[in-house]
Amino acid sequence: MHVARIPGDPDRSAEALLLASGKPGSLLVGAGCVRESTRAQTGTPALTRADVATVDPRWSHPYRSAMPPLESFAASILIGLVLLVMLWFALGTQRNIRKGDELLRWLQRGLPVLGQKTTMRWLGSSAVELGIVDPAAPFREATVLVVLEPRDVGLLWAYGRFRGRRDFMIVRVNLRRPPRFSMDIRDPHGWTGRFDAAEDEWQRLEWPGGCVAFVGPGADQPAVRSAWNGLSEASNGVWRLTVQPVVPHVEVHLLPPSPERIGADRVIAPIRDLATAIARD
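The structure corresponding to this sequence follows.
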């Protein structure tokens, strides 16, 4: 409904509203006041249709909301999410590169235990592979893999963090003489410590720290236990230690310690001692 006003006569403007609506004598609303029509009592001449036609056009505009359309909000939210993802990716990548460089500097003291020359390559932004060139005896091949949390992808990082994933190392070595037995020790709570199906003839043993060991026939348990204890003392935790006749002959997954607390040579030395012991068997 439009509001009509006749300049200079508020009473006639209100009556014009009534006349336009076809309900004379009704309750009037206009210019901040509510009142009953008293035109009949005061003797004011009644309005005609011509009077109604001369209303001020400024009072006849329909109401328009000042609120912007919802489409503009959706576009703004989408742009904000894209910028947030890009910023997270950039900051996460930089953080992983700094963390990787820190671990590589720490490893410089331990890699000579495996060999004197090393090649390095980044596998994306969350892993670094170190290959040992001309490894020392009893090794035939040796590889160290530094695996970082996927800090550049927020959802993957949050999921892995919730499941217990942390920055960790994988050491894989092949011996000049392969082992003659199989033995697998894992921490079920570790990111890579969950067991696959074990061989039927393997013996299951409860291991210290809530870990589980599967031992094949003829396993050198004292040598493996000594290596596990040495790795546990030198690192922030061991997730997996596997010895097997097929490549890789020895594989270790562990959490690196604080670089200021323990040197990398103390972490690599138990692996060398284990390889030396099983290569003599």
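Helices lie at 10-21, 39-42, 49-52, 70-107, 154-162, 221-234, 264-280.
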